[in-house]
User: Fold PhoU family transcriptional regulator from Aliarcobacter trophiarum LMG 25534.
Amino acid sequence: MLKPYEDKLKLIKSEVEKLGLDIVGALEVSLQALNERKIENLKNIEVSEKKFLVKSNEIDNLIITTLALYTPEAKDLRSMVAFLKITNEIVRTAANTKDFAKMFKKSYSDDLDTNTILEYTIPLLKSALLSTKTAISIINEQDSSKVEEKYQKVIVEESKTDDLYLMIEKNILKLITKKLDLSKEYFDLLSSLRRLEKIADRSVSIASLLQFAKLGGDIVQS
Assistant:
């Protein structure tokens, strides 16, 4: 394979990974804020949808240019196709990450049952973070068995977010019946937590695309 092509492929992988790790970093800051009960620190989440979109378009253009200049082998062609789709998933994940931080901070207050909220929100955020972090780590994974292992780990964490969201939804609805005057705040919180569930969904899509890139088969997205 031509070295210039190899360099392009490495650059594409590196740039996609950087975008993904930026989201991982934002989710880690969010988790720390919740663990320390310093919800105001969610204002420090620096996720610009515009910047992610611009960078995503730059990567997509690089992929298209590379495909036009070279004739990649089947495995590398799969990677190019996968990365074209992954950039879109990352942009959507970035939007959900920003929305979670903004909406949670705005609706959270001591008037609410904060203990119940955080009891479920923290593990929900942990699972969303772990699923995203694991999915991004597949980019540089060469061992096919490890690729499959990490893919299954993402599936497990995404399933946890579904279960946790249903649990907190049930509990918040109970809290609303006790304090109807706070129903808007509770519903807004619930909406913010829905973003975490969506983040985990996107991680499954990313992991599926990377599994396709590494192992072949069919593309299966959530």
